[in-house]
Amino acid sequence: MAAMTLLRVVLADDNLLIRQGVAALLQSLDSVELVAECDDVDALLNAVDERQPDVVITDIRMPPTHTDEGIQAALSIRESHPSTGVVVLSQFSEPSFVLALFEHGSEGLAYLLKERVSPEELERAVQAVAGGGSVVDPKIVEVLVEGRTRRSSAVDQLTPREREVLALIAEGLNNASVAEALVLSPKAVAKHINSIFSKLGLSEEETAHRRVKAVLMWLAQ
Predict the structure, then answer these.
(1) For 16-53, how does the pLDDT look when each residue is reduced to its tens digit (9 = 90+)?
(2) Sheet holding 7-12, edge to edge
(3) Do residues 114 and 87 make contact, with C-beta atoms less than 8 angstroms apart?
(4) Are residues 115 and 171 in the same domain?
(5) Which end of the chain is less crowded, N or C, counting CB atoms within 10 A of the terminal residue's CB?
(6) What's the predicted TM-score (pTM) here?
């Protein structure tokens, strides 16, 4: 009966030593069963299809391009296997990776730093994402907060209508839903959003990242 309660985990990391170290850590946990180890994204996605794990733990940079394969794999897995949680275990505290991971929501996702994670923290993260929760390393939160703080005064420059638009975006509404909620035309909403981006200093960034960063700055206020 106890074995049936174990969380099935697939691990992916192209660095053999790191993968073996994390595997050993996972095997020391009473609540986890390591069912597959992978060294690239294709092997990871195949293992998820075949083993149907509760949780995937993945590095960010893996073959073939060593850029953001882990992030893209996480998003793909959450879409194709919504009951599978994903823990991104990374050595990078760059906000762009975190924003990309949480671009479409945080449910069932975690972002932890390899250099800081303990067995207890990893176990808590695995359990959290398996249940649909979310975990972010406190150091990552500090980085994001510092970035928001530098621009927080810019939120004060928004008009009351722009604040209404941004508040609805923070609730997850798209442009069409914002327009319906505020009885505005989609064109008017797009104009307000562009003005928000400009005032918050986000006009030169990718649209998806601008929306996420704008919401983070709003929530920080």
Answers:
(1) 999 999 999 999 999 999 999 999 999 999 999 999 99
(2) 32-38, 7-12, 55-58, 85-90, 109-113, 134-136
(3) no
(4) no
(5) N
(6) 0.67
Inter-CA distances, 106 with 14, 125, 134, 212, Å: 25, 13, 6, 12
Residue ranges making up the domain that contains 59: 3-136
One domain, residues 117 and 163: no
Of the residues 120, 136, 152, which one is the last residue of a structural domain?
136
164 lies in the same domain as 123: no
pLDDT in tens, 132-156: 988 888 887 776 666 555 555 677 7
Distance CA 192, CA 65 (A): 38
Window from 30-34, 70-74, 171-175, 196-200 with minimum mean pLDDT: 171-175
Task: Round to whole Å and give the CA distance between 98 and 119.
Answer: 22
Q: Do 111 and 29 have their domain in common?
A: yes
Distances 114 to 17, 27, 120, 141 between C-alpha atoms, Å: 13, 17, 13, 15
Radius of gyration of the chain (CA): 19
For residue 58, the domain's CATH number is 3.40.50.2300
Q: Are strands 7-12 and 109-113 parallel, antiparallel or unpaired?
A: unpaired
Could you tell me which residues come within 8 angstroms of residue 133 by beta carbon, excluding any fewer than 6 positions away?
107, 108
Instruction: Report the distance separating Cα 22 and Cα 180, nearest Å.
Output: 48
Residue that finishes a domain, picked among 100, 115, 136: 136
